Amino acid sequence: AMSGESGGRGGGGPAGGPPAAPPGSDTYKGWLFKWTNYLKGYQRRWFVLSNGLLSYYRTQAEMAHTCRGTINLSTAHIDTEDSCNIVLSNGGRTYHLKANSEVERQRWVTALELAKAKAIRMRNNQSDDSGDEEPASQSDKSELHGPLKTLSSKLEDLSTCNELIAKHGAALQRSLSELENLRLPADSGEKIKAVNERATLFRIPSNAMINACRDFLDLAESHSRKWQRLLQHEREQRIRLEETIEQLAKQHNSLERACRGAPGLASGTTSISSTAKGSVQSAKGEASDEDEETEYFDAMEDAPAFITVTADPKHHRRSGSNLSGASEGHPEDWNLEDSVFESSNQSSYNESTGKDLLPRKRRRSRIPDKPNYSLNLWSIMKNCIGKELSKIPMPVNFNEPLSMLQRLTEDLEYHELLDKAVKCESSTEQMCFVAAFSVSSYSTTVHRTAKPFNPLLGETYELDRLEELGFRSLCEQVSHHPPAAAHHVYSRRGWTLWQDITISSKFRGKYLSIMPLGAIHLEFHSSGNHYVWRKVTSTVHNIIVGKLWIDQSGEIEIVNHKSKDKCQLKFTPYSYFSRDVPRKVTGVVSDADGKAHYVMSGTWDEKMECSKIVHSSHGSTSTEGKQKTVYQTLSPKVLWRKYPLPENAENMYFFSELALTLNEPEERVAPTDSRLRPDQRLMESGRWDEANVEKQRLEEKQRAVRRRREAEAVEALEEGKDYEGYIPLWFERKVDAVTGELICVYKGGYWEAKDKQDWSMCPDIF
User: Fold this and answer.
1) Where are the strands (E) in 348-483, listed by range?
2) Which residue in 36, 191, 732, 743 has a CA-CA distance of 20 to 30 Å to 589?
């Protein structure tokens, strides 16, 4: 990897260690301090000057594998700011360097100037040479020897001058040293010391000039013939390479024609990354933070642990002798006409498959356009590195007009996947729909880099679509520090979903990590299948510079605690050098015995497909010790595809059709509902200045309530009484029987209170 650290200016410290070679040599090495950025200032780097290129490394050991940056001196400008600073600029790249003394700085400047002159001469010579020249004739050689002899005589004169300079320079320094030892006025002593330093600086470039001339003559004599032979060899290699590429192109063209005409071949192959060594653990927090200004990504991803091959259903059977340890499936199980999988391709957001539901209520399809207010994010967050995001006071300029409770409710955008899962007779088929549903919840985040509002303690959000879509949802903010929300969804189509999510977020300077902690539970009423999974880590990149973009990474393990079926899903992190599809998600659905039944593949921002496995075998072991498995599958079925965004979505915070309706005013909701939050409503209307004032008022009101609770807790402690703290209104804390964790579950009463319009127990939070 090769990259440059950003140029800048600022203070620093001395560089350590003398250069490793004199300025006249081909290669010049040494430690210098390089300006990186305003956070880290000057950093100690190992610099190597060779062949007209100045390269730097974090350590000397890195010279074997990783160059941190290189600048070409032939087109560079060399400048000196003060006694110890050097500034190198080449186009848009600038290096600010610092040495530990003026003498060392002068050594580097001399070496850089010599290297620049040499690089310019080499570039001019290369541009003057013709690519079709024949090897030098005898007359050309005689013409070459003449200038070489002249150069040699001039070099002898320079050597004589060098000896005289060294002799008289040493005498001058001795005389100056004697003067320093005499008792003279303080002012005279300082002047003599300055003259002595100047004399030393004069000797350095003089010696460097003589050494450079001698080295140039030696190189010209010894390498001229070798360079001519190498040039001729490169010409021949280039011709052979062109011929080889032409032959490969012809072969590739003929192979393509043959592949199109050959019947019965596999329709396609895909490779997915996972592991075949037992179960995959859930993601463990955020990625490690590099101690360097630039992030480096590996050029190659992990080697695939298993491969899927799409087969023709009529020709899928193979003899067991070809594949060892194979498990067989039957293509007739993959019913193309009547299965639930087929119906998954025929539904859309605007269709309802439930015959017992009322027509959908007409809801809003747009909100006011987002104002074009500019604000520097770095000016807000530069003092917040390493802090919890929920504790950072942020203006609404970086928000979107939805709360975190409403973002949680957005997970239900593709609820029809669960409606279809109810109809599945096989638990492994049902697992495929649950897996697609777990991935679909991330589809709305691909363009949504704005931050949702942090809910106030006791804030609620309801989404009652029981008559239209068959479900009703309720969220409540049950904790403020750390921020935690409880969510409960009931569907009359045969499923119930609940989750208790704590959001942990850290600002790392270059990126923001958002880690949802807590399990998501899904239970189907008729079968009793109980699924549990956890969310992956979301990362917002380019916090300081560049366009914000979001990525999802990590692994999800979905477990059916009744049948013990499992699905392992891997969210591949984005890498510039990877050849995989961006935002890729892959996985395998297996039963309680570990036998694989389906392969899941797709992307978290577009679609998910499911392929039935008809044959599997254990392949060879990779170099990393992972055993590869080959899955022969039938043609994939699309289980989920993302709905297109509404028109003008880019000016409406990239909201989906469902998101546009989440903050739509509704009657009869609780007084703590997010729709009634004033700062959020003002922001949606485009009145951001008023929204910021209102946001500060609400936060201060919440702080006052917290201080009162803390005082009550101290008072109860002094009196020897127990203090329970905040008690959620509609949820209660219980130990989950499946995971053993303490979670908040819905205890009932909200919808009954709504029918009666009895909100007397709700606190005044707005």
Assistant:
1) 399-403, 451-453, 460-465, 471-479
2) 743
CA distances to 468, 485, 494, 495, 766 from 750, in Å: 20, 16, 20, 19, 19
Q: Quick one: residue 91, left, alpha or beta (phi over 0 = left, psi -120 to 50 = alpha)? A: left
In whole angstroms, give the CA distance from residue 415 to residue 449.
Answer: 24
Hey, what are 475's tokens?
Answer: 């969220």
DSSP 529: -
The pLDDT of residue 14: 43
Q: Give residue limits of the domains in the chain.
A: 27-124, 399-658
Evaluate whether 628 touches 617 at the Cβ level (below 8 Å): no
218-221 LR contacts (CB < 8 Å, sep 24+): 220/148, 220/151, 221/148
Would you say residue 128 has pLDDT above 60? Answer: no
Q: Which two tokens stand for residue 666?
A: 């509704």
Per residue in 75-114, pLDDT tens?
888 888 777 889 888 867 788 899 988 888 888 888 888 8
What is the maximum span of the chain, computed from C-alpha positions, in angstroms?
A: 111
The token pair at 302 is: 């992990």
pLDDT over threshold 70, residue 24: no
Q: What is the reported pLDDT for 597? A: 94
State the CB neighbour count (10 A cutoff) for residue 35: 24
409 touches 487 (CB < 8 A): yes
In this predicted structure, what is the pLDDT of residue 647?
92
Q: Are 60 and 46 in contact (CB under 8 A)?
A: yes
Please give the single-letter amino acid code of residue 613: I
Distance, first Cα to last Cα, the chain? 53
Class of 27-124 in CATH: mainly beta
Please choose, from the candidates 120, 108, 213, the residue with its C-alpha nearest in 3D space to the C-alpha of residue 160.
Answer: 213
**How many Å separate Cα 652 from the centre of its chain?**
25
Once rounded to an integer, what is the mean pLDDT over residues 261-269? Answer: 46
- pLDDT tens for 617-640 read 876 665 556 667 888 889 999 999
Handedness of CA 155, 158, 163, 166 (dihedral sign): negative
**3-state secondary structure string across 204-239:** HHHHHHHHHHHHHHHHHHHHHHHHHHHHHHHHHHHH
More confident residue, 673 or 228: 673
Q: Please give the angle made by the CA atoms of 104, 106 and 108, to the nearest 5 degrees.
A: 75
Whole-model pTM: value is 0.59
As a whole number of angstroms, the distance between CA 286 and CA 290 comes to 12
Alpha-carbon distance of 235 to 41, in angstroms, equals 47
Cα radius of gyration (the chain): 36
Contact residues for 247 (Cβ-Cβ < 8 A; gap 6+): none
CB 520 within 8 A of CB 534: yes
3-state class (DSSP) for residue 457: coil
- 10 Å CB burial of residue 502 (0-12, 13-18, 19+) is middle
In angstroms, rounded to a whole number, what is the distance separating the alpha carbons of residues 386 and 510? 11
Q: Where are the beta strands (DSSP E) in 561-646?
A: 566-571, 584-590, 596-603, 607-621, 627-633, 637-641
Q: Do the bridges between strand 519-524 and strand 495-507 make them parallel or antiparallel, or are there none, so unpaired?
A: antiparallel
Q: List pLDDT tens digits, range 331-359.
A: 444 543 345 665 554 444 344 444 445 56
Return d(Cα 659, Cα 218) in angstroms, integer: 75
Q: Is the dihedral of CA 252, 258, 261, 267 positive or negative?
A: negative
3-state SS, 530-570, equals: EEEEECCEEEEECCCCCCCEEEEEEEEEEEECCCCCEEEEE
